Structure formats: structure tokens, C-alpha cells
Amino acid sequence: MQIKLQKNYLNYKNGVLYYKDINCLDLVTKFGNPLKVGYVDIIREKITSLKAYFEKAISKYSYQGKYIFANANKASYYSENVITAGTYADMYETSSYIDLKIVERIIKNKIVDNKKIICNGIKDKLYVDQIIKMINKGYDILFVIDNKSELNILLDTKFNRKVEIGFRLNLPNLYAKSNDLGFDRFGLKEKELIDCLKKYKKNENLVFTTLHFHQRGSLYNQEKCFENIEKAYQLYSKIVKDEPNLVNFDFGGGTPYDKINEFDYEKYADDIIKLLKGLGKKYNISDPNIIQENGRYTVSDSCFNIYKVETVKNSHDDKPWYVINGSIMTSLVNTWALKERFLFLPINLANNKLIKVRIAGDTCDGDDVYFYQNSEKYCIMPEIKKGETLYIGVFGCGAYQEILSGIGGIHHCLNPEENDLIIYKKNGKNVFYKIRGSQNEKAIFKRLNYLKVKEMKRFKIKK
């Protein structure tokens, strides 16, 4: 039995786990525990490496279109992540009013360059008004139309310049489980989209440049991915003959990401370009630009959590429970919501005898557990000897988990949030910036309205 290090940014030295060149055990000693760590520079690595793989494949197959990397902010809204991704990505992608306001703020203050912004999602009035306001101010925006009502708003709007638009195509969900609907609510069915193409020219400032569809990156299956791409491409090939400004083929939903194992992105890029080159020849059209909206891929590896094993409890079999000083349900929402796997590894004691264990959070909920690291339902961890303390790291948790759990909010059993550490590079050296300590009693009392006695008395009931 051995610990498998499937991620190339992890390695052990003398029984201690290193993330890149960082001693994870030292982080606990210096910055507290439980600890949430964000390592910003890996975002740069992820973006630049994927772009390089696609550029290599484009050259290999003499593909005439460009590869365009758009960062999907929604995966992690932390400023250090959005700013780093925005620096190296080719475009920004937003999905809400506040999301767009964030991009406006960092561009306006010259924190990042003024690049194209793809405005996606189902758009309420606040979001639409902000898009229109920024277009008229001169921001470079691609408005992706999700439904007919959004197009009608644009048709009735006076713009002082040309406005790039795209249409989102609704495709069947090939990844649906047997009890799922098999379709979702986003985008336009093919007939609806064709109807919209007849109408958009009523506003002479609207320029149709992009066909968009959603490719579910986190559930990657090459056969299903290629089937989706060809369905969308077939429609693109019909439309483009009558739409000279249509040059972008946007398969949003992102690049595949595996939390446990390293994925071969060079082969993936090669396969995608080879497929698109073949489809271009099949349908006799010019190669379109490729846009990918990457969120999970961009930030997942940039964040990891560290917990201490507080208690070892005997189980009903030979696999003891390792109970950590935190909540798996709270910090890793997708473990129970979507049954996703995360990479759990020992931070120290890796040279000890290895045993099969199950890991549990310290809340009162029976579902606050994790043991499906593999199909046999256990994790491999060091045996803890008397007087020893084991720390456990959870990797690949940089996308969506905090957003879904509610940063700064109230959590199950009032578990406090972790200490929060950001690591970034300055002049080639790591800088350690602790942005906040563990959530304290005062913060929790304030949020629940227990802090001020006067406020509590407001609800006092006289019998």
C-alpha cells in the first residue's frame, strides 16, 4: 500500500508534503489550523500552458483560426484569482451584474488590461442595464443572448457604437443521469436561434460574431464532447454562409479537470484542433476562432485546505474514522451535493505505516464524511502513533466550493471558517499574506444578531 501522488505540483520530502516548493507542515505552524491556502501563481501556469498546447496544435494542423482563453470568473471571485487570471487570459467572462461590476472596477483602476468581456448567463434588468451602460462607455463587450427576451431588449436599445452579440445554442445534456431531465434551461433551441437571426438585423448596430454552446468540462467524456462539438459545428456551418461576421465558435463550460489525477492537456488540445480541422473540411468552411470559457480548470489547483486529525474512532470494520477539526460538508460542498471526489493526502507522517481509513468532519451530521477517494471507499493515511499529530490536506478545491458554501457566512453546527492564507510571487519569491484568521465568536454572533443585548431583547416574548 502506498500514497499515490497523481498531481505534478505535489511531492514528499522526508515524510512531509510539499506543494510546489512550499512545505505544507510549515504553513500550519506559522499560520494556524485549520488553514485555507491560495497559491496564485499556479493560475498563471494553467493559463499559459493550455494556450501553448493549443497554439502548438494549431501550427501542427495549419488551423487558420485563433485559440482564445476566456476566464470564467464565477469559479472563484477572489480578487487575487480574478486579477491573476485576467492578466494572462485573453478575455473575461461574466455571468451576473456584480460579476460584471468587478471586471469594470479592475479595468477602470488599471489593475488589469481592458480586454473583451463576454457577458453570459440569464440576465435580469440590473445586469442588462449595466452591460448597455458599459457598451456605451466604450468597453469591449460580447453580449451572448440566452433567450428571445434579451434580444428584444437589444433591439429596442439605442447604442452609440457597434455591439458584438452571440447566441447560445441549447443542446441535449448528454451527461444527464437516468433520473435527470436530459436538458437544461439555458440557450436557444435551433429553431428559436434561426428565428432570432432573422430579427437581430433590425438594430443596425448589432453584429453577430459568435455561436456559443456549453460543453460540460468537469464531466469530460471525449465521445460525448466530440458529439456536442459536431452538433454545434454543423449548425455553425449552415449559419456562417449567410453571416459574414460570424467568426467565433465558443464552447463554454471549460476544459476538462480531474481533481484526483493529472490530465493530458497536450493531447486534449491536439484532439480538439484535429477534430475542428476535419469538420471544417467536411463542411467546406473556414476555420473559426475557438473560444473556451475556463473557470474550474483555471483555479481548482490554486487552493488547498489543511486540517488536523482531532480524534481517531473505531469503525464497524477495520477502517477507523479520522475526525478532522473542520467540516467537509461546509468546506467541500460538492462532496455531498454532487458526490465529487477530492484529493485527500497526509501532510506529514507519510513514512509511517499506511492504513485504510475513512475521514469525517466534526459536525453532528452523519453525511459530513469522505471516503470515496476510490471505488473501494477508503482513503490511505498514515497510522497515528501515541504522541503524534497528523495533518491532512485537501487539494483541487479552488473552484466553486467557497462560493457555494457562502464566504463569511454561517455554517453547519456554527463551524468557524478556516484561517485564510494567500501566497503570491513578487520578484520571483513567495510572499505569504494572511488575509484573515479563523472566524471568531464575535463575527458569528454579529451575523446571527446575538452580539447586542438590545437587539436580542427586540424578540423577547412576554408570556
Structure description:
With 463 residues, the protein is an alpha/beta fold. It folds into 2 domains: 10-40 and 301-447, Lyase, Ornithine Decarboxylase, Chain A, domain 1; 63-294, Alanine racemase (TIM Barrel). The chain is built from 15 helices and 21 strands. The chain has helices at 24-31, 41-60, 79-88, 97-108, 125-137, 148-155, 190-199, 222-239, 265-283, 296-299, 328-331, 334-337, 401-405, 441-447, 453-457; strands spanning 10-13, 16-19, 22-23, 35-39, 67-72, 91-94, 116-119, 141-145, 163-169, 206-214, 248-252, 289-294, 303-313, 321-324, 343-346, 354-360, 369-370, 379-382, 391-395, 419-426, 429-436. The strands form 3 sheets. Strands 4, 13, 14, 15, 16, 17, 18, 19, 20 and 21 form a 10-stranded mixed beta sheet that branches. Strand 9, helix 7 (190-199) and strand 10 (206-214) form a beta-alpha-beta unit. The chain is globular, with a radius of gyration of 24 Å. The chain starts with 9 loop residues before the first strand and ends in a 6-residue tail after the last helix. The mean pLDDT is 90.
